């Protein structure tokens, strides 16, 4: 989930995207990023592809908005909402900013845990079993895209390292979102397999 304020600061969102993001924040959609066991997210445990597809859709729309209006100056960027219904009180903005930071922190933590799990699985299972399984097809059936997933998430972790380094909340959120947007085509490829 992306905050309205973060998108407004980057001067790239249309009113529809802002509205969808406000709805996502108010419904608590960040819960899918909450680590349930301290190791993986509940979305990963349940394998809920719909939740992942919804996240990808929002990221795609954000990327499209960036491409359509690079560097444009939106009324939101200057503190003036595009329409009165989008105006948030200072208390509402503070709450939304807190929720955004919690979501970003959970996302960064969950992604780091997932990468650690991928590395563990590769080191302890995939590579050792490659030589032990008599049939290479059996290894492929079990670990078919594991190496590609590992490579993708290593790239994502490198990009997210920049976000982890930021102390300013808006920059941290924007850098996190941009890391996912930059790798969006690779996530779509994984979705198809």
UniProtKB/TrEMBL annotation:
Sequence ranges assigned to domain DH in this UniProt record: 99-193
MF (Gene Ontology): guanyl-nucleotide exchange factor activity
Pfam families listed in its UniProt record: RhoGEF
Recorded superkingdom: Eukaryota
InterPro entries assigned: DBL_dom_sf (IPR035899), DH_dom (IPR000219)
Name of the protein in its database record: DH domain-containing protein
Species of provenance: Calcidiscus leptoporus
């Amino acid at each position: 989930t992306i905050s309205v304020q973060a998108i407004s600061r980057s001067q790239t969102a249309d009113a529809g995207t802002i509205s969808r993001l406000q709805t996502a924040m108010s419904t608590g959609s960040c819960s899918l990023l909450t680590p349930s066991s301290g190791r993986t997210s509940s979305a990963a445990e349940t394998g809920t592809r719909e939740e992942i597809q919804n996240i990808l859709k929002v990221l795609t729309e954000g990327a499209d908005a960036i491409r359509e209006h690079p560097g444009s100056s939106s009324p939101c960027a200057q503190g003036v909402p595009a329409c009165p219904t989008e105006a948030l009180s200072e208390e509402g903005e503070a709450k939304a900013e807190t929720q955004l930071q919690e979501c970003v922190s959970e996302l960064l933590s969950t992604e780091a845990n997932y990468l650690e799990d991928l590395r563990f699985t590769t080191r302890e299972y995939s590579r050792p079993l490659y030589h032990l399984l008599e049939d290479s097809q059996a290894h492929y059936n079990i670990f078919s895209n594991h190496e590609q997933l590992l490579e993708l998430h290593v790239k994502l972790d490198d990009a997210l390292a920049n976000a982890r380094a930021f102390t300013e909340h808006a920059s941290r959120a924007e850098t996190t979102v941009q890391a996912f947007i930059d790798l969006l085509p690779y996530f779509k490829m994984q979705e198809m397999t």
